[in-house]
Amino acid sequence: MAFAKSNRLPVGAIQCDNTTLSLLKANDFMARSIRDRMQAQGTLLINITSSAGSGKTTLMQETARRLKDQIKMAVLVGDLETERDAVRIREAGVPSMQIVTNGVCHLEAQMIQQAFDHFEVDGLDLLFIENVGNLVCPAAFDLGEDYRVTLLASTEGDDKPKKYPRMFLTSELMLISKSDLLPYIPFKVENAIEDARAVNPEIETITVSSTTGEGMEAWCNWLLARIAAKKAASLESVSA
Ligand SMILES: Nc1nc2c(ncn2[C@@H]2O[C@H](COP(=O)(O)OP(=O)(O)O)[C@@H](O)[C@H]2O)c(=O)[nH]1
Ligand SMILES: [Mg+2]
To answer: Distance (Å, rounded) from C-alpha 149 to C-alpha 141?
Structure first.
């Protein structure tokens, strides 16, 4: 199947399924409004995706601990049930709100827009959205993000980028997480990177461990550079 990266829709879905088309069109309309708002206020918006258990919330906690004194950040977090992840992130010292999807396997832009009615996003330098854990449905929904970052944990196997290509095609960065476990399992970082680049030649990669801190400086620097670029672009668009 061919993919349209610009609007993150699989082309086949546009051609053969009117229901999917109208749902995703409505989502894209809302995503554009979120993107416009984030552009106007200079907030970097990052959509974090992965399978369940790959380490998204732990990464949010560790990133919060490292960056919360330098920048103003917050996390919206989606799960099928429970508020547990938002509680964990608040314990790390940054504001967080849970979006409980009641069984829906992905976040939609409309849910993010609704969360904005109850959660302060004005003045943020960085807003993370931790998506519902799976590599399938979240790939099809643009949330207005600047970057989609997908975690691939060493425990998941290095064959996933080609099995779930849409997610890796629509991501700008792949974080290979739980690198502390690499000595104990048959996961080849170079194989995962080769397959991810076969799907998306432009994808960047960083290998990280929230447990040992490996790669965390590179990850935080990746974020800080993009926060600065977003601020500069926002100021430029306001003065233009
Ligand atoms: N060994 C190891 N375990 C990790 C790491 N990051 C997260 N975990 C563990 O993996 C499990 C799932 O992590 P969590 O952050 O909840 O994953 P999420 O479902 O993607 O948000 C938890 O038991 C974490 O303690 C890591 O870097 N190394
Ligand atoms: Mg989580």
So the answer is: 14
